[in-house]
Amino acid sequence: MKQHESSLPPGLTLVATPIGNARDITLRALDVLSSADVLAAEDTRSLRKLLEIHGISLGGRPVLAYHEHNGAKMRPQILAAMAEGKSVAYASEAGTPMISDPGFDLARAATEAGHPVTSAPGAAAVVTALTLAGLPTDRFLFAGFLPNQQSARRRTLEELAGVPATLVFYESPRRLAAMLRDAEAALGAERQGAVARELTKKFEEVRRGSLGELAEFYENSAARGEVVVLIDRGRLENVSGSDVTRALEEALQTMSVRDAADYVAQMLGVKKRPVYQEAMMLAKELRE
Q: For the Tetrapyrrole methylase domain, which residue ranges apply (predicted)?
């Protein structure tokens, strides 16, 4: 058998893989998967199927499983390969490595050992859902999976209630209805949201509405497949003048008057004109 020859430099390349449609892979990702000396994957079966679909031969290269249950055991082996001057490609099961994925420890260990780490970017369910949800995208908070236990889940949602950013969660279809009821209780029935399901696949669906409407729908209609839940940004209540002043003083250290006013007004959910007027006065005082 012909010896594999790598065109990749030594080190670790994190490879994003499709979240559904196998054609949503980048040309660069295919190049990396074709060229790396060693392939590692959260799910080797998924990676082998992807390679087969795109006609990539292993050529005798090792395919190593790296997941949350064997990371401590496999990291030394993968780091040893890099120390020998080999190139390693790590692929998530679906989407971008490090986004609800066990590759974090591997990338950190490679960096600490002095090996180059780079990324071949691509699909990510969180970004795909944001583009389709119809909610603000200028600022968002990805919170991964919420706790399984209801009390802990509600407590986490309550802590996020005032965050001035669109909230994004991954969720199990089995827990979706319960999670939406908890979100309704913690954030309010009228707060807007969206449920994105089976993104890029045949039965892709994005359902939008209030949290109350979404909770009622999914209590009566079982969801299937991968689910992303998005919730509109919070609005802080009872914002005081001192809250605005403190926020402006901090923002003006790195921003122009206009940018600081825009930022603070949006962050605190207040009218922009009085914030802009105060920002001009504060900026004048800082100059004097």
A: 12-215
Residue 7 has pLDDT above 90, yes or no: no
pTM, entire model: 0.79
Phi, psi of 251, rounded to the nearest 5 degrees: -65, -35
163 and 141 in contact (C-beta within 8 Å)?
Answer: yes
Cα 3 from chain centroid (whole Å): 38
On whether residue 161 sits in a domain, the answer given is: yes
Q: Which two tokens stand for residue 241?
A: 């003048």
Q: Which domain holds residue 270?
A: 241-287
The pair of three-digit structure tokens given for residue 72, joined into one six-digit string: 């401590």
| Cβ–Cβ < 8 Å for 97, 15 | yes
- Same structural domain, 196 and 247: no
The verdict on 111 and 153 lying in the same domain is no
* Token code pair at residue 44: 């080797």
Q: Read out DSSP for 199-223?
A: TTSTT-EEEEEEHHHHHHHHHHS--
Instruction: Render pLDDT for 76-116 as a digit per residue (tens, 0 to 9).
Output: 999 999 999 999 999 999 999 988 778 899 999 999 999 99
- The answer to whether residue 116 sits within a structural domain is yes
The answer on 117 and 202 residing in a single domain is no
Torsion angle (degrees, nearest 10) of CA 105, 111, 115, 120: 70
Q: Are residues 20 and 119 in the same domain?
A: yes
CB neighbour list of residue 18: distance below 8 Å, 6 or more residues apart: 24, 25, 50, 94, 122, 123, 200
| β-bridge pairing 63-65 and 38-41 | parallel
Q: What is the mean pLDDT of residues 138-166?
A: 93
Q: What pLDDT, in 10s, does the model give residues 200-241? A: 999 999 999 999 999 999 999 999 999 999 999 886 555 567
Q: Are residues 101 and 23 in the same domain?
A: yes
Q: Among the three residues 94, 123, 152, which one is the final residue of a domain in this structure?
A: 123
